[in-house]
Amino acid sequence: ACLRVLGRDSAERVRALHPQVLEIPFNSTAKWMLTAHADAAKAPDSDARGAYSVRLVVKGAPERVLRMCTIGEDLQFSAEASVKKLMQQGKRVLCIAERQLQGVDVGNNAEPRLEAADVPLHGFELCGFVALEDPPKPGVIETVERISQAGARMVMVTGDHQDTAETIARRIGILPLSAVADEEASLHEVVTGAQLDEQLPANDDFRSLAAALGGARSETWHFWDRCVRHTRVFARVSPMHKRAIVKAYQHFGGHITAMTGDGVNDAPALKEAEVGIAMGVRGTEVAKEAADIILLDDDLQSVVAGMEQGRLCSENLRKSIMYTL
């Protein structure tokens, strides 16, 4: 799609001219991926040494990729402002940068011999940003409202950037449109993974927080207590954060937690929650195995319907027992 917009060659032709010789896959910790591409039109002879020129292309979270780029202060400021503006529109933003790597040795098959350890992670040139919009599905706003009316609290836990997550949360009703008057609640409406890293208890054992201080409540204890009471959006979180968040709600609020997810990274939290709900259409097999319930239509409205039917069955059972007694 990007090539068509730029009026360039087809993707197949670009791949043929610049075959991929190395890939460092994306992971949730680094938040970027890198590929290395050779120039097929300038391939040296197999007996040449250090003659290959390879183009490194990295894409990922803007705050991570920009650190790998060599750019001036003015461009840095302009880039960060552009990213923030896009994210505040609810868009997911990818940053793309490249670097030419000269003098790469040629292997036995006349292709560049390049290992991940040989790839420099600095000196890249900023190419630009790609903004992706994933609008809420029809009916999501009404579903969030119905869940709230049912007495349940919905919390967004996402790997997206804080600005993107906050905008979407306000758009669908998880966060109020206007600022919260209470200062403590306002400060903890949105919490990032970086903040959680500073306050994670050992082995996610929240019971040990007070015990370690002879019953006194530490700053970490107060942080998680405020999160459970006030936070509605957890952004830029990792898989271990998701599991810790579920355990925090169970420990501090005594809540019965339900967790929805579809990826491998969601499996620990799905397993930890009292009710793990996996997506049946786009969900991975690992997520489905860890979950208690699988939504065959991937629709949150089915969760509301399940809550209604469950409460109806519980009420009918209670009435039946009372009548019998």
Automatic annotation (TrEMBL):
Its main location: membrane. GO terms for cellular component: plasma membrane. Gene3D superfamilies: Calcium-transporting ATPase, cytoplasmic domain N (3.40.1110.10), HAD superfamily/HAD-like (3.40.50.1000). It is a multi-pass membrane protein. Keywords: Cell membrane, Membrane, Transmembrane, Transmembrane helix. GO terms for molecular function: ATP binding; ATP hydrolysis activity; P-type sodium:potassium-exchanging transporter activity. It comes from the Eukaryota. GO terms for biological process: intracellular potassium ion homeostasis; intracellular sodium ion homeostasis; potassium ion import across plasma membrane; proton transmembrane transport; sodium ion export across plasma membrane. It is found in: Cell membrane. NCBIfam families: ATPase_P-type. This is Cation-transporting P-type ATPase C-terminal domain-containing protein.
